[in-house]
Specification:
Layout: H1 5-13, H2 16-19, E1 28-32, H3 57-60, H4 63-68, H5 70-84, H6 93-104, E2 109-113, H7 119-123, E3 129-130, E4 133-140, E5 146-148, E6 168-172, H8 182-189, E7 194-198, H9 210-216, E8 220-225, E9 237-240, H10 243-251
Parallel strand pairs: 1-2, 1-7, 2-3, 7-8, 8-9
Antiparallel strand pairs: 4-5, 4-6
Bound molecules: ligand BV8.
Residues 33-35, 38-39, 44-47, 50, 61, 114-116, 132, 172-179, 199-201, 203-206, 225-227, 229, 242-243 line the site of ligand BV8.
Active site: 132 (proton acceptor)
Subcellular location: Cytoplasm
Function: NAD-dependent lysine deacetylase and desuccinylase that specifically removes acetyl and succinyl groups on target proteins. Modulates the activities of several proteins which are inactive in their acylated form.
Length: 252
Amino acid sequence: RRLPCRVASFFLSNPGPLMSRASAIPSLVLLTGAGISRESGLDTFRDADGVWSRVRLEDVATPEGFERDPVKVHAFYNARRHGLRDPEVVPNAAHLALARLERLWPAEVLLVTQNIDDLHERAGSPAPLHMHGELLKARCAACDAVLPWADDLGLEDRCPSCGAEATLRPHVVWFGEMPLEMERIEAALTACGVFVSIGTSGTVYPAAGFVSLARRAGARTVELNLEPSHGASLFHECHHGPATGVVPAFVE
Ligand code: BV8
């Protein structure tokens, strides 16, 4: 099995911990953000035309906002769910390139995404780790069951798992809530050989701190983004441009 030449030459020119480590821990950790889905037609958050230019995150992406006005939050996520089902919204060349890499090296690559869309899955990624949750899933606040968000599911509906009433919420990590699977992510970051951050502004923690964690542990760190992120100076290597250009170029 050969690593795609760009990635293989990267590993070979940076032997570091990766080449000396025969471990089950992923050698390559990928982190994606909203920028990777931009060319598929989904808005980013902090670009001029981004999600937070139209609605206050405090109102729709915090537990307090949900407490204050669950109908408004429900409408916000329903609109994004419907947007995701637009036939024009399909995985792009960047999603597909990462899926190819994962298929080539299933045990070596961990894909962590801040995104709550399903474009990595639809591109063929076997098991993206959605650290901020998933738009197409609901969670019961009473029994923690996670279930598909069927179109007709309403906040007043009973939980299909425990029967509790009006306990359903989006299975999404809001500000002030702990991202999912952090222990697994941190274990991979402190043992990987290469960390690649793709399409994220480096604004939101703890994801924005992953590059420092990986670098301190000896990994090579790479940023692939439209423009320098807030953390660009922390990376060993940066390639700036649209994801559909820089990601396949890096992977191939
Ligand atoms: C937590 C909901 C603690 C889902 C989101 C220090 C340490 C720890 C926490 C904090 C800290 N400082 C502050 C905090 C609190 C807070 C935070 O980080 N605030 C920020 C605003 C300062 N963090 C939290 O609250 C997190 N929780 O820390 O919990 C805790 C501890 C113990 C117990 C309990 C709790 C929770 C964070 C998750 C919040 N949820 N969203 C949803 O609705 O989607 S965050 C939101 O931002 C999205 O999830 C999004 O994924 C995420 C990151 O944004 P990006 O993906 O980077 O998108 P952005 O628009 O910013 O940038 C896009 C980039 O793409 C740009 O750079 C652009 O140039 C580029 N681009 C554009 N087009 C393209 C492109 N690139 C390539 N090609 C293109 N075509």
